[in-house]
Amino acid sequence: MRLLRVATCNLNQWAMDFDTNLRNVKESIVRAKTAGAVVRIGPELELTGYGCEDHFLEQDTTAHAWECLKDILSGDYTDNILCSIGMPIIFKSVRYNCQVFCLNRNIIMIRPKMSLANDGNYREFRWFSAWTYKDELVDYQLPVDVSEAISQETVPFGYGYIQFLDVSLAAETCEELFTANAPRIDLAFSGVEVFMNASGSHHQLRKLNLRIDSIRNATRLCGGVYMYANQQGCDGGRLYYDIEKGDEQVKVDAMRIGQYKDGEFPTDSRELAKRLFYTVYMGTENSSEGTRSRAKRLAEEIGSFHFDVPIDSVVSVFLSLFERFTGKRPLYKVDGGSHTEKLGLQNIQARIRMVLAFMMASLMPWVHNKSGFYLVLGSSNVDEGLRGYLTKYDCSSADINPIGSVSKQDLRAFLRWAAVHLQYSSLAEVEAAPPTAELEPIRTDYNQLDEVDMGMAYEELSIYGRLRKIFRCGPVSMFQNLCHRWCGRLSPSEVADKVKHFYKYYAINRHKMTVLTPSYHAESYSPEDNRFDLRQFLYNTAWPYQFRKIDQLVQDIDKDGKWVDSTDMQLRERRAVRSAQGSGMGVVAAGSANPSVGL
Hints:
alpha/beta; 20 helices; four-stranded mixed β-sheet
């Protein structure tokens, strides 16, 4: 028996950048051959990049993929090595997501994807069709220029496997790893020993273990070897794929972005941060000394170029201008003003910070005799977005938001970790401080706090988010589930008030998601409007039908403010389960606090 050396190549492809993608594919094949491999697999749709989205609908995209494949086959890249290369292919006017198996400058087989990913961030049915003809291979007529280049007219197309003298190989593509009736099951019975999975599986918090377990289970049940290749990094959208250390590439990028010259080199992370990272504390009379000092200490620990810029004078100019043409000057609520006045005064502070941040990002390189401009980083999290607890076009508006798809609970856990492991000790104080926007005056009897402002705790927001997105609950089914979850702690009427309060402000503020700053996808209940959480942004915020239904349920189960007896509750619970199953929801309240659900 011979040993078979194989290579899985995880590539940092960029959607529609054919030069870069082709170069990466070629380099990966050369490195695989140098290592002695005779089988090589790359990520899904590696020639085009996975994230082309509606560019897949363009004929040019498929044509350019064929041109790149012809380039590979015209050289010696596939000599003595079986290469699986991912690309889109049109067959009988239908577009398929394919793996193309190449060996010795010929195409051995084309395997179209049979199970398409079509949930969450995935919309493969928008661009591709699934191949449904199992146990069938048909002849595919190669494009004329490819056929002439490699002296081959047709190639087997469809579901099948490749049999060599001493090994059998077959393909699975990404989603097929997770399907119940996976292709590998029948293929294993046919004697296939090596399964090659080209994947485009994006990163999400707590998702990696699921993929690893699925790969282990594939070989545990079917035996053989399971090869898995995935995309790396970001390919032009909001998704990040597997992330490698990539130390050499990081050095190159740091030298370029930091504008090091004449043999200069970063001496440590703080010195690099001083060149790349500007932080600005834009305080007002409403800001506390505690937050100002924490910002300064954190900037010192990181090494950023830090400014302390009071913006009270700018706020005053706007208010004076407003008073000049209206004859009125708004007051904070604690000083006798209305709720409308309070919001207006808070929003002007927040929006001035956005304008100043972008001004500094564009001009600070000029101040320090550098070329280019800086990116503005946003700072709102997924829970604030879900509740709409942010000002439209404030510090949440930026070029990119590193934490925009991370929950408050995960952020706090990261701050605790970073305080110890990254030795940014000030982060422990940041995490321990009560969350506050500090947009209202501090009084002896009043201090603005986020959770008080929102009327709900961040922990509750995470539960609402999972029930709404992952378990697909509307207001009524969310109320029913939370009655079970919070039984004994809150009465049905109190649960109803909380659900109504959440949905009221979710509906009022949903429009803010249409201009949400791009962030990499990390959380399974993200409200990101661009591609992940596709819902309307204009609502009847009273939810009259749904809230009336909740009120009816409260009357049914809350007799004079008391829970129904346990026997009656068990009966109602069984009825609720049957109702949920009949409606296709299958909601489980117990999972609403589990951060790993939805994977």
